[in-house]
């Protein structure tokens, strides 16, 4: 008899697409092993200028303030399918460096532990991480406005946001009105509202909401004639890395005791989930709304830059002091590559 444990899931955020750019060589953007990686699922979101204007106009200050984290749908029935059982191809470790804006520089790294404190420093992180807003289209929460978190990453089209799978699709339906607000701070939108033109997720999440693959990307449209990472910079990203490393997790938790108004972080050494998933865990008190927020290895507190290596995904409700995130293997690499090659026209 299979044993099931109850779990609690967090809520998602938004992103926007941008103008197509020429792809760099495979060595620069980690496209190795793609021929054997699973093909991501792509959904066309606001792919016309009129749709993009409509979505951007939808998100008034009042609607953003009223957006709530999603409830955990079917909390007792979510699947944990071993990646080993799926015989996924093993990939070689690869990394893509961060993209800095002119105001950012590199200095020595420091390290500290946190289980859920406000981020009070500056650096790239305050520009690249943001809130995601969307409208749920399926299930009991259909029609509800909700929020998640996400992060801008270095990419060929300069327009990719990485988040969690349930922040783009849940109960069989992709979300609508999807936007990304980088640098969100107590209601302020210092870098504007970026509308998603395409939403992508792993085939495992799309088909069965397998928590081991709760990962997604959004491609966002240009804003005021500029591409996303031209404005806010982009974090680096890494695949097929060793486990049990020092991690920094960020997000905008919106459920008590947080309210979604500030960037919160957790840091410490990751551990392997020994219960039901193939995910990595971290001691972290962040709540709903932080879903999709980035986890970094090689994070530098002075520059606020690192290598994105997982995202906030779920918590077991009998151990809410742990946060879990999917391992970034070949399927994550395939998702990233598909997103960065997505055209914005």
Structural description of this entry:
The chain is an alpha+beta fold. The protein has a single domain, classed as Thrombin, subunit H (Beta Barrel). 13% of the residues lie in helices and 30% in strands. It has seven helices and 21 strands. The strands form five sheets. Strands 3-13-19-18-14-15-4 form a seven-stranded mixed β-sheet, covered by helices on one side. Strands 5-6-7-12-11-10 form a six-stranded antiparallel beta barrel. The protein has a three-stranded antiparallel β-sheet with strand order 16-17-21, with no helix packed on it. A hairpin with a 7-residue loop joins strand 16 and strand 17. The longest helix has 11 residues. The chain is globular, with a radius of gyration of 18 Å. The N terminus is likely disordered.
What can be said about this structure in brief?
With 345 residues, this protein is α+β, with helices and mostly antiparallel strands.
Q: What descriptors fit this protein?
A:
345 residues, alpha+beta, Thrombin, subunit H, six-stranded antiparallel beta barrel, 7 helices, disordered N terminus
């Amino acid at each position: 008899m299979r044993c099931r444990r109850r779990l609690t899931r967090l809520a998602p955020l938004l992103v926007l697409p941008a103008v197509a750019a020429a792809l760099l060589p495979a060595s620069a953007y980690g496209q190795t092993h793609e021929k054997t990686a699973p093909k991501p699922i792509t959904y066309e979101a606001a792919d016309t200028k009129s749709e993009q204007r409509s979505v951007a106009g939808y998100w008034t200050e009042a609607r953003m303030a009223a957006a709530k984290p999603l409830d955990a749908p079917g909390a007792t029935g979510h699947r944990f399918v071993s990646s080993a059982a799926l015989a996924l191809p093993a990939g070689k470790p690869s990394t893509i460096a961060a993209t800095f804006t002119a105001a950012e520089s590199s200095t020595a790294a420091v390290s500290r532990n946190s289980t859920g404190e406000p981020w009070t420093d500056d650096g790239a992180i305050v520009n690249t991480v943001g809130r995601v807003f969307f409208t749920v289209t399926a299930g009991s929460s259909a029609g509800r406005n909700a929020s998640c978190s996400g992060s801008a990453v270095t990419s060929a089209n300069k327009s990719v946001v990485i988040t969690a799978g349930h922040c783009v699709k849940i109960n069989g339906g992709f979300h609508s009105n999807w936007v990304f607000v980088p640098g969100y701070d107590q209601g302020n939108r210092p870098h504007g509202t970026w509308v998603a033109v395409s939403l992508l997720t792993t085939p495992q999440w799309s088909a069965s909401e397998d928590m081991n693959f709760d990962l997604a990307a959004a491609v966002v449209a240009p804003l005021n004639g500029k591409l996303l990472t031209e404005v806010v910079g982009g974090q680096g990203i890494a695949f097929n890395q060793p486990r049990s490393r020092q991690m920094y997790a960020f997000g905008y938790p919106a459920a008590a005791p947080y309210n979604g108004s500030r960037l919160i972080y957790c840091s410490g050494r990751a551990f392997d989930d020994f219960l039901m998933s193939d995910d990595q865990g971290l001691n972290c008190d962040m709540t709903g709304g932080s879903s999709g927020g980035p986890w970094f290895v090689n994070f530098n507190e002075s520059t606020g830059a690192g290598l994105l290596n997982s995202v906030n995904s779920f918590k077991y409700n009998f151990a809410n002091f742990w946060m879990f995130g999917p391992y970034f293997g070949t399927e994550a690499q395939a998702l990233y590559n598909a997103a960065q090659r997505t055209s914005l026209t």
